[in-house]
């Protein structure tokens, strides 16, 4: 179809386009390599296989916004197939290739239908962005943003949308003009319908239309390729890579190496982030789903997980040639990606990570900056001083003496490891249940349950110290290191077969993070352990009939995937279980995590706990069941201000109430 001069011209344009595209992608690659080393290459075949599966099935995309996800799927699957379509079209331009009839029929049918699907999908997405303009595309006024973002995203979206529409539309018109010169093709119904509209044109005009729009389809690719590395469309390539390298449990933080001399801890600038964090910025699709799920943003705080990654991306694009060449970035992250309010508003609930369709780990960006603030600059909310000092001096954030750690057990039969050096089950009480008067009732209920079931168990007593969760999430990695090292030494001496915790934060830290300090343990949450006791018949309870709603703790659910055992326990005791609108993976945070419990909440439209409490109460349940002492404390803050509140009780308390004599 192409003349010889056109063939030569196309090859020259293709060479130039590929050169500039290569230069752009190479700079992106070199920029990502500037990030700190991070080991993510274990089980590589498994990682790659999982990434391909998630990408092709679009599972992560369809978690939220089903209609938008469907439109996106039209575009995605169409573009995957268009890799073949564009190759065939190119061959048609260079060789006398007849692509109709016989083996070409299935190919043409799929190409034709996906052409229509892409156009429906992209036009639907463009109408949503520019005419419907939902809040998905906006930010709270107090959210810090890179200065180029507000104008840059609409412009970039328009360029990408225009390219896709023009590219696919040109291909459709070229095929329609070709069909108009002969007979309609039943295997190209959309192009044949358009061909009937063009049938009135002269043969010469039809040849010209076919020719012009062939160039429009493939020529637009040549124009777009050099822009590709700078566009949001780069997620098409980066998202599968990012999905391959995401952590199985992103909330299980990796330790810092304090033995390295003159090491910079945490992230102050872009180059201080790991390569995976920089990859996050390029994989970001800018859909703002993470922002929508964030409890801080939802309640009017300055934090938007999306804004952080998007701002990093725009800064990288602005300095890309110099940054890729190894030059230092010109300004710290706190000047363009987030501010003090945003930094300390994060509850580390991991909702942003769970909902992200491309495998980003936004929460870890925030914690890296917190580490730099605390360890390098000594800057953090002053209220955390007391918690840090208490953990350092007394082994707990309340700062109460270690000699008081077993006072909660007064009057109960509670064996310690001094009496039972190697118990089958070690009950890790935790700081809250040891020192907080309300949470102590959870521990006392657990004692009743363990004794009633005849479990061989004991507690560490005065040898137990804070796991360091709050210190680590607040950025004080060195304090966490001290506590973790001491606790692992103690636990290794006792060597229990099973550790049971009533606090999901202890459960997460001991089970997932102490491994890096030489502590390999079987750790179960008390809801799991009680469910086992009920199932085995070791625990007999009288059935209740109350209506109960369960609040999924973030560190039990999203961080560790424990959703059914708490519900099994409640159902096993006979409670009528109702679910709040946001439950399981989509549960809403109580507001205590990320060391928030030990400081004042950042200003916003409402408290995070208030938002969650309203939802739980709205179910009409008589009891709000919790599986975390901190969730219970946050709900009780709201109960104290409510004239007709439901009861707030831990699962252990509910089971203990029904124990049969």
Structure description:
The protein is mainly alpha-helical and 661 residues long. Helix content is 53%, strand content 4%. α1 (4-33) packs across α12 (305-324), α2 (44-57) crosses α8 (235-244) and α5 (149-180) packs antiparallel against α7 (203-224). The termini are far apart. 48% of the residues are buried.
Using brief descriptors, characterize the structure shown.
661 residues; mainly alpha; 4-stranded parallel beta sheet; 26 helices; 8 strands; 4% strand
Query: How much strand content do the residues show?
Result: under 5%
Helix-and-strand structural type? mainly alpha
Q: State the separation between the terminal residues, measured CA to CA.
A: 90 Å
Number of strands: 8
- What is the tally of helical segments? 26
Task: From the alpha carbons, calculate the radius of gyration and give it in angstroms.
Answer: 29 Å
Task: Write down the overall geometry.
Answer: elongated
- Strand sequence of the main sheet, in spatial order? 2-1-3-4
On the 0 to 100 scale, the average pLDDT is 94
Give the uncertain stretches in residue-range form.
none
What characterizes the major β-sheet? 4 strands, parallel
User: Helical content, roughly?
Assistant: 40-55%
What is shown here, in short?
With 661 residues, this protein is mostly helical. The protein contains 26 helices and 8 strands. The radius of gyration is 29 Å and the shape is elongated.
